Amino acid sequence: MLELRDIAKQWDQRPLLNGVNLRVNSGETVALLGASGSGKSTLLKIVAGLDVPERGSVWFDGEDITRMPPERRGFALMFQDFALFPHLNVQDNVAFGLREQGVGKAAARKQARELLARFGLAAHATARVWTLSGGEQQRVALARALITRPRALLLDEPFSALDAALRDQLRAEFRERIQAAGMTALLVTHDEQEARAMAQHAWGVQDGTLVALW
Ligand SMILES: Nc1ncnc2c1ncn2[C@@H]1O[C@H](COP(=O)(O)OP(=O)(O)O)[C@@H](O)[C@H]1O
Ligand SMILES: [Mg+2]
Asked: Considering every ligand atom, which ligand is closest to the CA of 204?
């Protein structure tokens, strides 16, 4: 279970987050819905370990991880401005996390290609990432986030660059994949439809705190 306790963070000497409490049960997807500038990305960065709160703590399965470095948290991140490695081809981008974990090159590439096939990207395995369309790059980023079987998935407006049809398809695909893996996920979005399509529960980010939506 992922838990946030009384998280506070200022920006420009104004409170941005001011007493955020949240529980995400294991295997559950929870959405954080809020207007632009409400602090959603900041909150997700605090969960990821890319930002430190001024007050409060982050817990995972009973452990205080507030000051644990991001790479030790075992979370996969997918942010809106996806950053694929331009010097690696598609399959090596996807295989990257496995290589970091010490998986051999051939085995990592094989797993990457299997996942790419399920994402409809088999034909692009050895392509350079910049030759892919924006939507295809987003799908590569999804595959890269999922391949290490993270213990939680943190998604920041993950489908914002996709056209409507592909977005619907990926929302459904992603929801099924998260559920099948029993994965815990936190989804940040300004799009209520996206939250409804993917999350079991949603909270509104408003005036620095969370308001229960469903
Ligand atoms: N590193 C940063 N650089 C610039 N502005 C920031 C930064 N971190 C937070 N902010 C400000 O804090 C507010 C909330 O940002 P953010 O968490 O990205 O909101 P959201 O993701 O809900 O749009 C914004 O008004 C933004 O200007
Ligand atoms: Mg944001």
From this structure: 1
- Region 193-213: mean pLDDT is 96
* Structure confidence by residue, pLDDT tens digits, 71-99: 899 999 887 666 789 999 999 999 999 99
Closest to 108 (Cα-Cα) out of 122, 123, 119, 97: 97
Its domain, for residue 32, covers 1-74+154-214
Over the stretch 144-171, which tens digit does the pLDDT of each residue have?
988 988 999 999 998 887 788 888 888 8
Residue 108 pLDDT: 98
Task: Name residues whose C-beta falls within 8 Å of residue 46's C-beta, 6 or more positions apart in sequence.
Answer: 4, 7, 9, 17, 52, 53, 58
Closest ligand to the CA of 16: 1
Ligand 1 touching residue 11 (CB < 6 A):
yes
pLDDT value, residue 16: 97
Q: What CA–CA distance (Å, rounded) separates 178 from 18?
A: 30
Judge if the beta carbon of residue 214 lies within 6 A of ligand 1. Answer: no
Number of structural domains, the chain? 2
**Nearest atom within ligand 1 for CA of residue 39:** 17
| Cα(108) to centroid(ligand 2), Å | 32
Q: What are phi and psi of 190, to 5 degrees?
A: -100, 0
Say whether both 63 and 166 belong to one domain: yes
Please report the pLDDT score of residue 180 as a whole number.
79
